[in-house]
Amino acid sequence: MKKYIFFLISFFLFGSLHPKDYESETIPIGPYGKPDLNGVWQVMNRANFNLEAHSASAAMHLVEGPVVPIPHPDILALGAVGSVPGGLSVVEGNKIPYKRDALRKRDENRNDWLNRDPEIKCYLPGVPRATYMPYAFQIFHSEEAFFFAYEYAGATRNIYLEDPGEPPVDSWMGQSWGYWEENTFVVEAKGFNDQTWFDRSGNYHSDKLKVTERYTLLNPYLMDYEAIIEDEEVFTRPWKIKMKLYKKVGDDAQLQQFKCVEFVEELIYGEWRAK
Predict the structure, then answer these.
(1) What is the fold of 31-53+91-272?
(2) pLDDT (0 to 100) of residue 7
(3) 199 within 8 A of 129, measured Cβ to Cβ
(4) Residue 168 CA: distances (Å) to CA of 62, 160, 195
(5) pLDDT 10s digit of each residue in the chain, 275 long?
(6) What is the CA 132 to chain-centroid distance, rounded?
(7) What is the 3-state secondary structure (H, E, C) of the chain?
(8) What's the rounded Cα separation, in Å, for the pair 29 and 33?
(9) How far apart, in whole angstroms, are the C-alpha atoms of residue 37 and residue 161?
């Protein structure tokens, strides 16, 4: 009973347990001797709004107001629903190392978020954004296969377990191949088009993007996720994001359907409808 009370006090006072407590449970091992990553996972952060640290604001898209910036007229009616909650950085060093011209384009994206963010039109989210959107994803794997299914837009990734060579064509989700480094599953992804963003704040990449992900299980319900971003056309150097993934349990451990393409048909094609 005393241990339970201590747990509750620690949680409410500090928001989490000491990092060592994360690893207090045995990591589940699959039948082929590697950690069992199977399950439905989701982040608990604000990275999809902005990978970098950010304060709360009235909207993603602000325009000049009489005193302070105000929400764009197209989202003003959303009120608090269209606002942005504050969030901590998931970027190592808290600063994305843009080249000068690329930073200007990032700012242009940010100032025209409503028209430019691919999430608004339900385009496939790309990597690594698919991991930290506010929707769950599921990992299926065995010794011979590795597959990711994402709730958002019905996106999927088939992870090759042998290097398939250069991608034959650029795509939204790229081409991925993975391998184990001891108890960490590493995925190298490239072959992306330049149409996806990293978040709602206009952070973007070119078609030279390469992402190296690392999935490290800490206990049956918690996983470390890291991604190294490389793109010599946009950034001055490689940079890293890091966050925790949480496993869903019970009845909640299932993906819901959110194939949002049909929800944006009017937005994208409405002007072409026969009158």
Answers:
(1) Lipocalin (2.40.128)
(2) 47
(3) yes
(4) 40, 14, 18
(5) 555 555 445 545 445 545 455 555 789 999 889 999 999 999 999 999 999 999 999 999 888 999 998 999 988 899 999 999 999 999 999 999 999 999 999 999 999 999 999 999 999 999 999 999 999 999 999 999 999 999 999 999 999 999 999 999 999 999 999 999 999 999 999 999 999 999 999 999 999 999 999 999 999 999 999 999 999 999 999 999 999 999 999 999 999 999 999 999 988 888 887 66
(6) 3
(7) CHHHHHHHHHHHHHCCCCHHHHCCCCCCECCCCCECCCEEEECCCCCCCCCCCECCECCCCEECCCCCCEECCCCHHHHHHHCECCECCCECCCCCCECHHHHHHHHHHHHCHHHHCHHHHCCCCCCCHHHHCCCCEEEEECCCCEEEEECECCCEEEEECCCCCCCCCCECCCEEEEEEECCEEEEEEECECCCCECCCCCCECCCCCEEEEEEEEEECCEEEEEEEEECCCCECCCEEEEEEEEECCHHHCCCCCECHHHHHHHHHHHHHCCC
(8) 6
(9) 15
Ranges of CATH 2.40.128.20 domains, the chain: 31-53+91-272
The whole-angstrom separation of Cα 22 and Cα 16 is: 9
pLDDT of residue 109: 97
Residue 3 CB burial class (10 angstroms; 0-12, 13-18, ≥19): exposed
> 191, 167 in Cβ contact below 8 A?
yes
